[in-house]
Amino acid sequence: MYLSDMHTHSIASGHGTTCTISDMAKAASVKGLKLLGITDHGPATLAAGTPSYFRSLTFSPRKRFDVELFYGIELNILDHNGAIDLDEELLSKLDYAIVSMHAQNYTSDTIENNTTAYINAMKHPSVKILGHCDNPNFPANYEALALCAKENGVAFEINEASLAPYGYRGDTQANNREILRCARKHQVPILLSSDSHGSEHIGDFTYAADFVHQECFPEELILNNQLPKLRVFLQTR
Q1: Could you report how far apart the first and last alpha carbons of the chain are, in Å?
Q2: What distance in Å separates the CA atoms of residue 118 and residue 99, rounded to the nearest whole number?
Q3: Which of 9, 49, 74, 85 could form a disulfide with 197 if both were Cys (CB 3.0 to 4.6 A apart)?
Q4: 17 with 197: CB under 8 angstroms?
Q5: What is the DSSP letter of 222?
Q6: Residue range 185-215, pLDDT digits in tens
Q7: CA distances from 161 to 75, 79, 220, 233 (A)
Q8: pTM over 0.90
């Protein structure tokens, strides 16, 4: 069992999700999690979190249902320069950021240009997790991403929603295998993430954990159960 899930979405992300942060924390408590990350989509996502929502998170309780809460954001990469959709003043008040590519905000290009966009976005000091970069619709050079992640203190994500049968990104196994190879080679940590929209899949790493274990990925590079190390990792800028 893993003790943390750092990529989840509440009602503030839209997508038909109706769960509040309290609903999410209650579900995490039932699952036995000790640390939960709320990372709603950035303002460039239709009907998602507004700047005022992310500002208000600063005043939100740090513990609910005996679960420690970290408040972050899943930023959208907007262009090949790695532009993101929340300004520095607000980002600096959040605990951490995930950075991801989504089709409604970023037009996929060549491997070289996609890789450049990821790298430029990862250089922002608030970014600590590279979100679902296994997506075959956004091909990238994982060796280059691993080197950048190592240099900038960013973790790769192994996304349950990418590997589960209910996922919508297509066959991501080859890309995840390459991510793990590069992460192992360069000693880049990973996080298993549910990417749960609402409470249903919080703490569910059934397929992600199985995949990582089949690949014999070193447990010491998986941050989910190393809570003191994870806290420091996410808050080191």
Answers
A1: 29
A2: 8
A3: 9
A4: yes
A5: B
A6: 999 999 999 999 999 999 999 999 999 999 9
A7: 18, 24, 23, 24
A8: yes
Instruction: Report the relative pairing of strands 67-76 and 63-64 from DSSP bridges.
Output: antiparallel
Task: Tell me what the mean pLDDT of segment 60-68 comes to.
Answer: 97
Token pair listed for 3: 């003790």
- 180-184, long-range: CB < 8 A, 24+ apart: 180/212, 180/215, 180/217, 181/142, 182/142, 182/143, 182/145, 182/146, 183/146, 183/149, 183/156, 183/217, 183/221, 184/217, 184/218, 184/221
SS3 category, 156: strand
Q: Is 12 left (phi over 0), alpha (psi -120 to 50) or beta?
A: alpha
d(CA 56, CA 40): 13
Hey, what amino acid is at 169?
R
Strand, coil or helix: 85: coil
Q: Where are the beta strands (DSSP E) in the chain?
A: 4-9, 35-41, 63-64, 67-76, 96-100, 127-130, 155-159, 190-193, 196-197
Tell me which DSSP letter residue 52 carries.
H
Q: b vs e for 61-93, b when ≥16 Cβ sit within 10 Å of the residue's Cβ?
A: eeebbebbbbbbbbbbbbebebbbbbeeebbee
Distance (Å, whole) CA 98 – CA 47 = 19
φ/ψ of residue 84, rounded to 5 = -125, 170
Kindly indicate the confidence band of residue 12, based on its pLDDT and cuts at 50, 70 and 90: very high
